[in-house]
UniProtKB/TrEMBL annotation:
Keywords: FAD, Flavoprotein, Monooxygenase, Oxidoreductase. The keyword Calcium does not apply. Belongs to the UbiH/COQ6 family. It comes from Alcanivorax xiamenensis. InterPro entries: FAD-bd, FAD/NAD-bd_sf, UbiH/COQ6, UbiH/COQ6_monooxygenase. This is Oxygenase. Residues 7-323 form the FAD-binding domain.
Amino acid sequence: MNPNGPLIVGGGMAGALLALLLRHHGCPSVTLVESHPLPAEAPPETPSFDARSTALSAGSLKVLEQLGLLAPLLERAASINEVHVSRQGRLGLTRMLAEEHRLPRLGAVVENRWLGYLLVSALYRDDAIEVRAPDGVEAARRVSDGYIAKFNDGGERHTPLLIAADGANSRTRDWLGITARQQDIGHDALIANVAVAEPHKGRAFERFLDDGPMALLPLPDQRMALVWTGPRDQVDAWMAMDDTQALDALHQRMGAAPPALTAIGERHRYPLVLTEACAQAVPFGAVVGNAAHTLHPVAGQGFNLSVRDLAALAEAVGGTAHPGELACLSRWQQARRADQAWVTQASRQLPEWFRVRQPLFAHSRQLGLLALDLLPGPRRDFARRAMGLQ
């Protein structure tokens, strides 16, 4: 194995996927370093009711299909065939349908344990990918043709391209000399799985409330994943409710469109701290995944945006002799700028836009929802952009 290929620090979903994509696009060797053990065994066939999940857009599914991972992923995923978007207390509803786009599905929701297992299994099947886990990089220093990374065991490795994929508080990003802006917006995300009384038929629901957006996403086995974001004091109240109270509150807020909810699993919360790296490319270095940007979870765009970043980076550098060349990395960064700006702006503005109560604005907003539902052209354009297909 050539030890001088790209070095990815961070073996989460972004880092693991990037390693596979780099190999897919011709990179002779890749090293992946992760501080935690990576899953070597398949999770149980019977999923945990409380398992965390990820919504993958149609564009992300195409990327996984290139790697031969789509079929096994769909074995334990729920397809999203239809998305309902509405506003509490107002008329107006828009629907996005897979058949409008001539797609088998708009996306799919998969448990993180299964997606992680598929990625890690593919890593271990490729002899040109060196996986160092559990291990870590304790320091990195710039040299004339790349970086020298020092591992926890004292060993060193030269790399022509050091890639930060180690999360929003990335140390690797610091070693690359890249700063990041972070904004705590004072809201938390509450997540849980719920059981439904009847099959969801692949329908997903995005409901804009006065206190923040709420989504129900399809999961296998008549389950749905709940994601709600709101002010911390209100999240405190939701966390303190018993299961019956929580289900009643959900029914009141979601309206009559979703299937009746019969049970709710363990509730988790995490603070919404938005991160944006001030640059994503420097000589011999790149920043990806949550180290590059973390977004509001509205519309589930965060990981899907990262998938598009990773696919473009792998295509840009995978087959080059000098993957850390600044000109190449800068072209990648520039090519991704418009998509990142659109998604970042939409994820920040949509929740605020739907919270405005001024009557004239609220009326025009509902007309906009009705127009999206009645006019297939604008609805298709919006949906295809959100799915990463244009």
